[in-house]
Amino acid sequence: MNDRTPDLTSFVSFVAGGVTGIAIALLLARESGDAARKRIGRSLRDAADSARDLADRVVDRGEQIGDEVARRVDAAGAALAGEPTSA
User: What is the mean pLDDT of the chain?
Assistant: First the structure.
């Protein structure tokens, strides 16, 4: 299974939930247009912050994976060259 699948699934679920929530809020709103716009603006800013946090986590995980791959490639190269490996 692809290691990126859970992050991608989380992101898609997050976006779908946000869109659904906004649509329901617009349909059921019992407030003035100005108040609704302010509330929706706050919700969108919160969603953007959450998306940025998720993106940061994805980048961090990508860096961790890159570091692990580099370590394994170096170890494999050393093993093929007959050099002793360190644990």
Answer: 84
